Amino acid sequence: MELPICWIWVCVLFNLPLAGCLEIHLSETFQPGTLLANMSLGPGWTSNLDRTLSPKFIQSVFQVGRHDGIIRLSHKVQCAHTPRNPAPVYFRTGSLTSEDVILTHFNVFVHGQDCFIKYKRKKASGKPDIHIKHLTKLEATSCLPAGKLLLNVTELLPAFTRNTAFLNSMCVGKDLSAVFRHGDLFLASDLCLEHRGQPEVHLHCALHSSPGGRLSVQLSLTVVKVPNQHGSFSETVQTKSGKLIHRGRRQVNTSPQFQLPNYQVSVPENEPAGTRVITLKATDPDDGEAGRLEYSMEALFYSRSNDFFDMDSQTGSITTVQALDREVKDTHVFKVSVTDNGSPKRSATSYLTVTVSDTNDHSPVFEQTEYRVSIRENVEVGFEVMTIRATDGDAPSNANMIYKIVNGDGVNSVFEIDPRNGLVRIRERPDRETRAQYQLIVEANDQGKDPGPRSATATVNISVEDENDNYPQFSEKRYVVQIPENVAVNTKVIQVDATDKDEGNNAKVHYSIISGNVKGQFYIHSPTGVIDVINPLDYEMIREYNLRIKAQDGGRPPLINGTGMVVVQVVDVNDNAPMFVSTPFQATVLENVAIGYSVIHIQAIDGDSGENARLHYRLTDTTPGCPFTINNSTGWITVSEELDRETTDFYTFGVEARDHGIPVMSSSASVSITVLDVNDNVPTFTEKVYSLKINEDAVVGTSVLSVTAVDRDVNSVVTYQISSGNTRNRFAITSQSGGGLITLALPLDYKQERQYVLTVTASDGTRSDTAQVFINVTDANTHRPVFQSANYQVMLSEEKPVGSTVVLISATDEDTGENARITYVMEDNVPQFKIDSDTGAITTQMEIDYEDQASYTLAIIARDNGIPQKSDTTYVEIVILDANDNTPQFLRDRYQGTVLEDAPVYTSVLQISASDRDSGSNGRVSYTFNGGDDGEGDFFIEPYSGIIRTARKLDRENVPVYNLKAYAVDRGIPPLKSAVPIHVVVQDINDNAPVFEKDELFIDVEENSPVGSVVARITATDPDEGTNAQIMYQIVEGNNPEVFQLDIFNGDLTALTDLDYEARREYVIVVQATSAPLVSRATVHIRLVDINDNEPVLQNFEIIFNNYITNKSNSFPSGIIGKVPAHDPDVSDKLRYKFESGNELSLLLLNEDNGDLRLSRDLDNDRTLEAPMTISVSGKKKKFRKRKKKEAKEENEEMNEGELEQPSTGCLLE
Which interval of the chain is the signal sequence (predicted)? Predict the structure, then answer.
């Protein structure tokens, strides 16, 4: 991925003095993997971030390609996690074939919201942007002329500087001068190593870019003198005559020597067996068998490395034995030995690190080949379903994953995947009733280049969990069924059916009758919807029932459909015989009435209906010539022939009422008709007005009142009939010898007619009289209570306090008085609720918990206080509303996980899970570190899956253990949350080079330490652990000839020869610590500590004093004429000087602390004097002779014979 702009700035346009001129500018919006810089120097070089120089907080930001030198962004940066802005960072590039090292320094700026960049003017720090350390080895006898090319500097500069021009400059050092021109470094003067005593020559050269010179490069060049190829050294000596001559040392049985103490080489993986790795060459200047070499190698740290490589013992060529697999082992370390065949055999050791370079030979591997996850339907767009991860055993350049959904199949309209991090999201609300299962085929492509990209697929099965979002639906809007009234009890009437598109309990439907079940004639089986008749039916009482059915699903909360209607039509059965309103029937008729005269009305009633109640009348038991006939339909008996009382004055016969039902049912009665003679007296009622009360629930046939009329005619027969006021034919009257008996013909209803005013006619056949009968109907308990609603549905929050009113129900009764006073009771005892018997108020009497029960159905009975009591039943559906009263609960009290410190960003560490007993959004749980400890941003958590992943590169050496705290949060208002501790252990990888205490170590060793004794222990520390912290030590420079030996495992430094302070005071060696494949070096100064093992050395000496001038000249030498020629090889010793004898006249003045000598003034004369004296130096005594001469000439001759004169004093010491 190329950046739209160059984020590496080289300070070539500014004149301000800056601390550093290479800058990397980062933005908070940059994605991981963004290319930042190219540090490449080509094959044979490795790059890494210098952790000792770079601040810890910035180290995890960068990902450095070890072999290609590409610097990428490891993870997103945040200003909140950047305590220094800008911050320095250092990258180190090292050669695999030499000791060359390039150190590059950048200043890193982070830009974004709330970022504060501290621009600060300051003086240049003196540190170069790029520091190159280069080592050149030349033979000891080499002489290079001026103008000789020493080094192509541009080949040692990182790739991003290749187009940078540099100013020509002159580099002058103490021992070496060079000219830098057009990228090359040339000798400015001749260089002959054989004339130089020191083994190394150093040159430091500062280079600057053009124009402006703001990019600085520091070049540190070291020229090392190495033995001649023919195996001998030449040395230059000076003869006594002053001539310089060269003489060669004789050859000895020398040890072989490798060109380098360490070798590093890279081999591609999967190359066939026999692939050449490297040829290691050692040299031995000896001749013959002593110079014939044999090579061998031994694996270090990983014994199986021996199985992968073979070394030709004669040529030193190393080849592979089998194909290498970088993912099994990416680094192999060997100890390589070379042995000559001299006597005794001598050997040398070097170390070889083989790095297996990556090829794209691994396909991505998903964490699971098949994923299964459930989501709730109707989740919002953008909901994060889960994160799919694939890893690739190859190196990062061949493992840059891109994810995509490869199957169309309609899933792309519902789901989408982030191509970089594999996060699957909702892009369209799923509907389980439309589709309950989705299968996504997700492909991961590693985008590898060599030999090409590889991919893998995984199946993601997504189940859509049901939400109770569908109401039950009846199969028919209205069910109609007919059943005969004589159907047996517990007979099935009908089965209603409602379906719910949801599933599980959300689709499980229960049924109940909520209204219309008068007198509880029917029962519905709740699970099945089957309706049975449970009490006898009577068509004559109730002909049709309208049952309202409720279908309720099992969801939480439930959804209810109360629109089901079942019409039960009771079919009449001919189960009632006609019943005459009175019997026997008696009537009188005047003999002179006309034919067709209506004599008496025969009336019967039938409780059935339709044809079953349609009556047919006929006369029975009549004699021939009977003068009466009956209307078959109306029942009126009329005169069919002229009457003649004198012939027949009395008739008796039967009458039959027959219905039209099947089977036919009939009843019979007797009829008596008396033929009267015509008379002239009017029947007269004894009372003109009658008044009485009758209860409305009086049974049919009840005698109501007997009325009497008196006819003074002889033998008159008075008949009675109700001529008016008999509303709905509720009453009937029967003529009797004593009067007319009024009886109840049909049931009364107080609500319809509370009073009847009957007009009763008494007739003797010709004349008649009337009377009024006032009948007051008194109320009976004829009406049952009726609820205002046949079904109540109310919502109740579970957080309502005890005693809260749920609902107030009410019933009415059309009766009056006690018959209308209603008492409410609960049919079943539901301990959570109670009802006020007088008001119908339902209240809670204990705490309600939605999680225990989501709904309640209460059967409430309303009873009146009549005799007998009547009642009605209603059902109260109480749906409990969930309150967010439950915190999420984790499945475990504590979670533990492990992760490798080199795990890629987004690696899954572990998964946490919590549940919430609440429902809906109150029970939906998401996960977060918000308010908790996320390891200072090192981890993040997927909010819906609970998978904890790495947010950036980890460093075990910085943080070995994380104690995180995650929260599960519901979506209630306000939300509730709970926390869980998470313990994550970071497992070590070998990513840290050993570190010496200092780059330059100083060790004091007493001289004369026994040969073979351990004189010091040199150790390095490795912040890794276990086998990754195993360190191997070796001396790589300065131990020639071998004076010391370093234990490879514990760093013990052993003296191999006698150490003599007086012969050599200091040794400088370079020690290397290796934790394969990582190395570090330190320069060790071994300073010998002098011990007093030498006596002072004092030679006999002579002082000659020449006095050429008289004492009047005032030229007598009064200063120091010389020093006693004594020394002590033990520099720590303090010499003391003393005259033992011969200086009794104090001719010489001696400084006892430093041995300085002065002449006494007494010697300023012309006398010749010779005085032997004895001087002791710290215990040593030596004699010397003092002579005084007079003639200068003679003394000059003596001086020419080799005595040393002190010109300033005229004194000679010998």
Answer: 1-21
35, 72 Cβ separation under 8 angstroms? yes
- Cα–Cα distance for residue pair 413/429, rounded to 1 Å: 10
Average pLDDT, integer, range 128-140: 80
Rounded-to-integer distance, Cα 546 and Cα 480, Å: 9
763-809 pLDDT, tens digit per residue, is 887 789 999 999 998 888 878 899 988 778 899 999 899 999 999 99
Query: Does residue 198 lie within any of the structural domains?
Result: yes
SS3 558: coil
End-to-end CA distance of the chain: 84
Query: For residues 1041-1068, b (16+ Cβ closer than 10 Å) or e, as one string?
Result: eebbbbebeebbbebeeebebeeeeebe
Instruction: Report the pLDDT value the prediction gives residue 227, as an integer from 0 to 100.
Output: 62
Which tokens is 802 given? Answer: 């005890």
Provide the token pair at 330: 């990416």
Q: Evaluate whether residue 215 is within a structural domain.
A: yes
What count of other Cβ atoms lies within 10 Å of the Cβ of residue 408? 9
Is the Cβ–Cβ distance between 296 and 380 less than 8 Å? no
Name the residue with tokens 């100890």. 335
- Mean residue pLDDT of the chain comes to 84
Rounded-to-integer distance, Cα 462 and Cα 411, Å: 10
Token look-up 């450095």 returns: 64
212-216, 384-388, 885-889: which is most confident: 885-889
Contacts of 173 (CB under 8 A, 6+ apart): 201, 202, 203, 204
Assign 958 to helix, strand or coil: coil
The C-alpha atoms of residue 433 and residue 30 are separated, in whole angstroms, by 42
**Closest of 846, 764, 783, 841 to residue 810, by C-alpha:** 841
Domain count, the chain: 8
Q: Hey, what are 126's tokens? A: 């003196």
In this predicted structure, what is the pLDDT of residue 991?
84
- CA 1054-1058-1064 angle, 5° bins: 105
Model pLDDT for residues 49-77, shown as the tens digit of each residue: 988 888 888 888 888 988 888 999 888 88
- pTM of the shown model: 0.48
Closest by CA position to 604, among listed 655, 564, 541, 641: 655
Going by C-beta distance under 8 Å and a sequence separation of 6 or more, which residues neighbour residue 953? 60, 63, 74, 75, 901, 902, 905
| Same-domain check for residues 773 and 828 | no
Residues spanned by the domain of 498: 473-571
Query: DSSP labels for 10-31?
Result: E--S--S--S-SEEEEEETTPP
Structure tokens given for 31: 């994605």
Residues 589, 659 within the same domain: yes
What is the phi/psi pair of residue 605, to 5°? Answer: -125, 150
In a domain, 305, yes or no: yes
CA 302 to chain CA mean position, Å:
37
Query: Which of 881, 899, 917 is the last residue before a domain boundary?
Result: 881
Q: What is the DSSP letter of 421?
A: T
Q: Which residues of 369-396 are buried (b: 16+ CB within 10 A; e: fewer)?
A: eebeeebebebeeebbbbbbbbbbbbbb
Residues 655 and 768 reside in one and the same domain: yes
Same domain, 765 and 849: no
Phi and psi, residue 739, nearest 5°: 155, -165
Return d(Cα 218, Cα 156) in angstroms, integer: 12
Closest to 643 (Cα-Cα) out of 765, 512, 807, 784: 765
DSSP code for 451: S
Q: What is the pLDDT of residue 1132?
A: 65
In angstroms, what CA-CA distances link 901 with 90, 121, 905, 941?
21, 39, 10, 18
Q: Which residue has the higher pLDDT, 511 or 149?
A: 511
Domain CATH number, residue 348? 2.60.40.60
Of 747, 778, 809, which residue is a domain's last? Answer: 778
Read off the pLDDT of residues 1092-1139 as tens digits, 9 standing for 90 and up: 777 788 878 788 776 654 445 566 777 888 888 887 776 666 788 888
What pLDDT is stored for residue 1108 in this prediction? 52
Cis peptide bond prior to 557, omega within 30° of 0:
yes
